[in-house]
């Protein structure tokens, strides 16, 4: 941060759009990362922060005289006046979450205490709304808190505030997820609400975490321990900024060298759910969403059901003992009105088990686990400087119900893997989970004399409460495997995936259909056949050993 003509000017790296591209100049093709973003807060010339003469402002132009009234038609009766509109009702204060707040000393030499003595939570359930199957609410902070010992004022405001930090993900106004540390408000003046979106699924009643990074003055945030206080009856924790991958401070975007952007975290209850202390003013929820895609298992390619016998040309025969009756004949359509045959549904990959995922994990069935990977879209991006095409492929993690007694129902996510073609190891250019970039790698394994390649998105470290329903996952691919049909093993529209639990004892595996047709979204559980093949192989090995 520097000073220009007495005004604070901040230089940061370029921001990133929700799609993962650089949000610099419009001519940027997405590969230029050194377009520095300068932010200057310019005061109004006649405002309290203006430092200069005000007599240079031209006087306000006098208002033009009203136009002459048009003569009305004679002998016309006027309609009676409309009744006055009722006044807009004031906000209902009982719709807000309320509770006691800790009174901290305003001048303790620590930024966490200075900020905690001022800020207040403004969380109003009447501001929540439903959109696309999610309940969105505004989590807002404001200062000073009434009756507090806040030592800050309009003459000495809070330097700035931003949503989350560089290691977190936040929601944009359209509901998409992006990297945190954004939406900088500088300076943060008193009585100015600062809000960010939080959301819940229809059936999600658990509290959700919200983060703010706040800087005020030059004092450090804490000494040894975090500062914990109560804001409106909810626990609020203030800590020093976390470390990012380069060893700098992971506060607001681009401020790697500022180590006193204090990180505030709170777990906010859903309005009306457990922990909410206020009137529930939520709007009516939308109609129930359609059921999740049906999970079906692909048939074992070596064991196929016999073809159904054709219908008899005349009266149906009595079914033989132990055999099912033939299918009923359809009434023929009238000539000229024959309906076309419906296209066959997409078929899962013919090849069943081929070792993926290549590990000792045995619990591979999707059924007792909470996660599914669902395809969303594929979007062409501007070509690279060498002319290679780029395509962004996006999925989302669907969180479904499972048997809480099952071992894998409470699993988190340590990593996500996709089975890929061998020649695609140079095609991945970016991988984003919830708008945040994560490291990826490729591994190769030999199985039955053939080499297989696995794409791995690692270092996730997510517990189950950290995975909301609909969490987006996007990868950007270039040639030679810019399409999913080229990238995923086996070609076609199917991609085999797996989730790993944090202890790697659970690895639910399935095939997803990468189709743009929403009626064809399907997730296939591959583990049923896999477990049987593994058992048969083990039996064969044991039989060979016994024979020897």
UniProtKB/TrEMBL annotation:
Biased composition (Pro residues): 59-71, 283-293, 307-316
Domain Pherophorin, residue spans: 356-508
InterPro entries listed in its UniProt record: Pherophorin (IPR024616)
Region (Disordered): 49-107, 275-347
Protein name per its UniProtKB record: Pherophorin domain-containing protein
């Amino acid at each position: 941060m520097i000073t220009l003509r007495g005004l604070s000017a901040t230089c940061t790296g370029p921001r990133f759009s929700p799609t993962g591209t650089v949000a610099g100049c419009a001519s940027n093709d997405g590969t230029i990362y050194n377009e520095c973003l300068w932010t200057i807060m310019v005061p109004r010339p006649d405002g309290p922060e203006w430092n200069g003469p005000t007599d240079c402002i031209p006087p306000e132009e006098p208002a033009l005289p009203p136009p002459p009234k048009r003569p009305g038609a004679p002998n016309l009766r006027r309609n009676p006046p409309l009744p006055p509109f009722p006044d807009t009702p004031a906000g209902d204060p009982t719709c807000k979450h309320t509770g006691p707040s800790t009174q901290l000393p305003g001048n303790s030499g620590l930024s966490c205490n200075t900020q905690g003595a001022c800020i207040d939570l403004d969380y109003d359930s009447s501001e929540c709304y439903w959109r696309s199957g999610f309940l969105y609410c505004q989590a807002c902070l404001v200062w000073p808190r009434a009756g507090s010992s806040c030592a800050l004022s309009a003459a000495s405001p809070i330097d700035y505030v931003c949503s989350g930090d560089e290691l977190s993900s936040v929601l944009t106004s359209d509901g998409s997820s992006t990297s945190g540390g954004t939406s900088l408000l500088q300076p943060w003046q008193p009585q100015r609400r600062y809000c960010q979106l939080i959301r819940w699924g229809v059936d999600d009643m658990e509290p959700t975490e919200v983060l703010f990074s706040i800087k005020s003055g030059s004092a450090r945030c804490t000494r040894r321990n975090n500062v914990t206080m109560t804001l409106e009856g909810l626990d609020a924790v203030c800590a020093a900024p976390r470390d990012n991958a380069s060893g700098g401070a992971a506060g607001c975007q681009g401020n790697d060298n500022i180590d006193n952007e204090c990180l505030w975290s709170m777990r906010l209850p859903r309005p009306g759910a457990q922990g909410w202390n206020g009137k529930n003013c939520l709007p009516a929820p939308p109609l129930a969403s359609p059921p999740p895609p049906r999970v079906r298992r692909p048939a074992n390619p070596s064991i196929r059901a016999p073809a159904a016998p054709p219908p008899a040309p005349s009266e149906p025969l009595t079914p033989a003992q132990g055999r099912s009756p033939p299918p009923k004949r359809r009434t023929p359509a009238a000539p000229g009105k024959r309906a076309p045959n419906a296209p066959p549904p997409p078929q899962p990959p013919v090849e069943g088990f081929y070792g993926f995922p290549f590990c000792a994990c045995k619990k591979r069935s999707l059924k007792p686990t909470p996660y599914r990977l669902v395809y969303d879209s594929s979007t062409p991006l501007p070509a690279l400087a060498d002319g290679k095409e780029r395509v962004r492929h996006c999925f989302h993690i669907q969180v479904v119900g499972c048997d809480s007694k099952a071992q894998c129902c409470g699993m988190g996510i340590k990593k996500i893997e996709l089975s890929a073609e061998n020649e695609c190891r140079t095609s991945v250019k970016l991988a984003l989970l919830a708008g945040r970039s994560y490291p990826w790698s490729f591994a190769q394994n030999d199985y039955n004399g053939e080499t297989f390649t696995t794409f791995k998105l690692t270092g996730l470290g997510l517990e189950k409460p950290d995975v909301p329903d609909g969490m987006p996952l996007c990868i950007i691919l270039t040639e030679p495997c810019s399409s999913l049909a080229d990238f995923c093993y086996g070609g076609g529209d199917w991609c085999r995936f797996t989730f790993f639990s944090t202890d790697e004892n659970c690895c639910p595996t399935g095939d997803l259909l990468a189709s743009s047709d929403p009626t064809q979204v399907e997730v296939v559980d591959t583990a049923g056949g896999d477990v049987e093949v593994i058992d048969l192989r083990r039996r064969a090995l044991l039989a060979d050993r016994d024979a020897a």
